[in-house]
Amino acid sequence: MNKVSSNRFRQEIAGALAEAFPGITVYDEEIEQGLQTPYFKVQLLTTSQVQELDRRYHRTHTFDIGFFPEGPQYNEEAHATAEILYDALVAVEIDGELYRGLNMKHEVNDQTLHFFVDYNFWVWKPKPETPKMQTLEQEGFLNYG
Known about the structure:
alpha+beta; six-stranded mixed beta sheet; 21% helix
C-alpha cells in the first residue's frame, strides 16, 4: 500500500501552518487546557477507505484545524485566519507528491475557529504472492477398442 499515513498528513499540515503563521504555536497532539493564545491544534477527525476496483482503494482523511485566537476581537481574527487557511492548505506535499485539500469549510464556535479539510487519495494493495507451478507430469493413454 502507499507509504502515506495519517501521521504524515498531520505533520505536513502542522508544517504548513507554521510556515503561514510564524510565531504561532501549532500542536498536533493532545494538549492541556489553559495554554497561551493564539495557537493551532491539528486533529484528525475521521479516516475512511472504500474499495474501488480489485486492489485499488479510495482513502479520505478529514481534519479539523482548531485556531484559538486572543483578545476581544476573536471573531474577526478567526475569520481572517480562515481566509489564509484556504490558501495555505490547498495542497500538502508528502515525498514529492501533492495532495489537494478538498471540501474546505470553516465555522466559529465558542471563540474557536474550526477549519475542516479533506485529503483524498488512492491506495493500491500489492499483488498477492501466488505459488508458481514448478513441474507438471502428464500421462496419456490411447484406447483402440
